[in-house]
Each structure stands twice: as C-alpha cells, then as structure tokens.
Design a protein that fits this description.
The protein is built from eight helices and seven strands; from the N terminus they run E-H-E-H-E-H-E-H-E-H-E-H-H-E-H. The protein is of the alpha/beta class and 267 residues long. The protein has one domain: Rossmann fold (3-Layer(aba) Sandwich). It has a seven-stranded parallel sheet with strand order 3-2-1-4-5-6-7, sandwiched between helices. The radius of gyration is 20 Å and the shape is globular.
Length: 267
C-alpha cells in the first residue's frame, strides 16, 4: 500500500474503463487522491475500491453522464468548490466511424456536446482556482485525427481538432500563471471506444496501442514538459517541424489585399 504524501486531488473523467481507468491507476500510484467520473456506477465503484485498497489513496466515485447538462453542472460545481483539486484529466468522449451520409445528426450533436462543450466547461470551472494558486495541471485527451482529419468521422475529427486548438490557446493564456496544459493525441487505442464507434475490429489491429502504453507514454511526456504528446509518433522532430511551420504561417495571413493569383485589380 502506498504511503506517499498527497499530490492533491486528480479528477479523471471517463474513468470507469480504458484510458481513464489507466490514468486513475497511475495517478493514484503517483500519490494523487482521486475523483473518478463516469456513467457506469458499478464499474466506477469497483475501480475506486480496488485503487483505494492498493494505494491507500482516497478515491471517490462520482457517477455522472457528462452528456447531460444537469450532471455536467454538478461536476462543474465540484471543480469550482474543491480547493484540493490539483489536476483535471478531460478524457470522457465518444466517437464514430460513420460518414455524413449514414451518421445520425442528433448523435453528432451529442458528440459535440460531450467532446467539446463538456470539456470546455470543466476546464473553465477548474482554471480560476489553478490560476489563483499559481499551480495545477489540465490534461486534455485529443486524437491524432484532430490532425489527420480524413481518417474517421468528420464530426469526431473536428471535435478533436478543437481540443488541440483549445490546448494551444490555454497554454498561451495560462503557462505564465503556473498552470500546466498538456494535450494528448492518441492514435488507435485498444479500448471500448471502438465498440461504441461501430468498429470493434480496430481493437486488435496491428497499429493499435494498448491503453496502458498510451497512458504511460503520456505521463512520461508530461514529466518531460511536453505541451503536446503523441505517443505513436516515432520521431518527435516530425511534430516539432510541423508545428513550427504552422506557427510561421500565421503572420502571412494578414494582408489588406487579396493575392495576385485571384486576378483582381488593385488600386
């Protein structure tokens, strides 16, 4: 049983299985007390009991469906009111492999709410206390399809592009105030995500990473100070170069006149 001094309280959403459950295990072993958030109360309580027994940490199951406004509001209130919270892992999300021709638009709207709105509201709920304290960590789980947008469902990919862009903005706004922001971009990972998304076969594909390897790599990236962690990308220089090119392009957008390639007369 662990006797480490407490690192504070880590809140992990989507914690009952897969990536979230591994984060819960690893953070408890690092000395964090936990608030574990998920819809499946039975799994949540079993995980909380196991981790409390194995690590000696305080582990609270918090049953909530973050796709529901009332449940989301309850968790937001907890984040605002609990001064002991030092980390938020925004892991809850859903996906799809359906094209625009076959996907149900109401299901796509629900995906946007969970993957974007809930993540944003939870971040806004916890950030003021972190800024006031001058410390805290927010880990947002994006996806490689946030960059490689054509690989899966377009709404899912766009939602993960949002998480990546949101992370860049948070880093700009909060880094000098002591708040750490890490955006994690998993590739295909062997979790129930694929069952829900409608493509269970992906869990056993040769390119699919285990949730354990994914989280261990992500936490190693956090320890190394990475702002964006892509565990499956073998050469870090590929990301560094791509990101440098993206940032260099920004100043070149600001022109009062259209490009000559459009053939417009300029006065």
């Amino acid at each position: 049983m662990s006797i480490q001094s407490s690192q504070g309280v880590a809140v992990v959403t989507g914690a009952s299985s897969g990536i979230g459950a591994v984060y819960a295990d690893r953070l408890a072993k690092r000395g964090y007390d936990l608030v574990l958030v998920a819809r499946n109360e039975e799994r949540l309580r079993a995980l909380a009991a196991r981790l409390a027994h194995e690590t000696g940490r305080s582990v609270e199951p918090f049953k909530a469906d973050l796709g529901r406004k009332d449940d989301l509001a309850r968790l937001e209130a907890r984040l605002r009111d609990d001064a002991g919270i030092t980390m938020l892992v925004n892991n809850a999300g859903i996906g799809s492999v359906a094209s625009i021709e076959t996907a149900n638009v109401d299901e796509m709207e629900a995906m946007i709410f969970l993957n974007i709105t809930a993540l944003t509201r939870l971040t806004y709920a916890v950030a003021p206390a972190f800024v006031a304290r001058g410390s805290g960590t927010i880990i947002n789980i994006s996806s490689v399809v946030g960059i490689a947008a054509e690989m899966l469902n377009g709404v899912y990919s766009a939602s993960k592009s949002y998480v990546l862009s949101f992370g860049h903005s948070l880093q700009k706004d909060l880094a000098e105030k002591g708040v750490r922001i890490q955006t994690v971009l998993p590739g295909a990972t062997a979790t129930e995500f694929w069952d829900v998304a409608g493509y269970a076969a992906q869990k056993t594909a040769s390119i699919t990473m285990s949730a354990t390897d994914l989280v261990d790599a992500a936490l190693a990236g956090l320890d190394q100070g990475e702002l964006v962690t892509i565990p499956g990308l073998q050469e870090s220089e590929d990301w560094t170069r791509w990101e440098a090119d993206r940032r260099a392009l920004g100043p070149r957008f600001g022109n009062a006149k259209p490009s000559p390639r459009y053939g417009l007369a300029t006065a």
